[in-house]
């Protein structure tokens, strides 16, 4: 076998591999010799079939098997021998000429193929003890725990029917029928709707017109659906709702006690407070983690500048761009609406893709050198988390991970990345800083929900920052900034009355 490098340009490599015809014939003859005592052919006694006859009958199929084995096994071995890692699956090219292929299968011509790939650049790790991060910490007071419990307790709040007029905070039970241009529209009817005035569940202007109604009242409410309302047939339209009030009820006061805890499925008020405090700490901790991670990645980005494999960048850019196009389509906006152009957006998101790939390679190298590993138990927990997110689709998801090559990498990569960040936090200079919750939660335009640098997670459907990306928009590998979107619609168009 001859291995000849024909291209070494930047990270691009092209290798010509040649297996002489004599070597291929020798391998074929070895296979034929192995077959001689096993094959049975009419007219010949077992073990007495001439090799020449075996070659005539099986020669081409054996050579085809040898070609497939070489193409499968040799590229990884060649890369290992060269001390290189390919950024993506190497591209393999061989003759497509039928006559040439026939000669190769007849061992009358050398078997040649080429490997084309990009190498993962060698990364010389630098000391990280010069990295300094500020970890923002919020002290959680009793008032905040109480406030959060009261919000949660709204689901358990009881209401008592009243004879007077409905006021802000009262619950109105009613039947309604929505109409546009005098015609009822789909989803605009409910015979037993319950609405708490001030909950902002219905479209703007609806709830305010319920103030002052009494049980038994009939009323026509006039509203205008928002211009960006999800149901296009209703967006921007004036509508009326024929209302029949069935009951007005006032809200009972909420007291944080064991009785409330029991309604919420807990054994005591103390346990309720403990759980709520833990939830708040987890929420703040997640934001703190995101900001600390961003600081680390920003400084790593300054420390490491090198050429990135363009195929990886292309794949990352394509993933980002698909999400941008989806978000624009769902929001009905254009790049011009977001104060940019498609050309500028492409340029900015290309930089974002390059940053993600570069930082992903750096984190991978740091993790490998530090011996960071992802256990099977961790992968299983990640898989179960996926299953919980999509109830009813468990079977399809399991089949996807079983049958899709590389699918488990989607689970492994974010776990690996977070473990590398944990490793870095044990080595960098971390200073805790007490801040208010407002300071902690404040985010600049370029910040967003955290995503994996090494492997982008499935994009979340949510409102995000302006389409115009900035150079530091990927500081913590967040989802690519996308056009702002409104809250998702609720189940019924009238209830949507302010979703």
Automatic annotation (TrEMBL):
Record EC number: 5.2.1.8
- Does the record carry Methyltransferase as a key word? no
* A single MF term (Gene Ontology): peptidyl-prolyl cis-trans isomerase activity
Q: Which Pfam families match?
A: FKBP_C, Trigger_C, Trigger_N
PROSITE patterns recorded: FKBP_PPIASE (PS50059)
Q: NCBIfam families given for it?
A: tig
Q: Family, per the entry? A: Belongs to the FKBP-type PPIase family. Tig subfamily.
**Role of this protein:** Involved in protein export. Acts as a chaperone by maintaining the newly synthesized protein in an open conformation. Functions as a peptidyl-prolyl cis-trans isomerase.
Domain comment quoted from the record: Consists of 3 domains; the N-terminus binds the ribosome, the middle domain has PPIase activity, while the C-terminus has intrinsic chaperone activity on its own.
Q: What is this protein called?
A: Trigger factor
Which organism's genome codes for this protein?
Answer: Rhizobium tubonense
**What gene makes this protein?**
tig
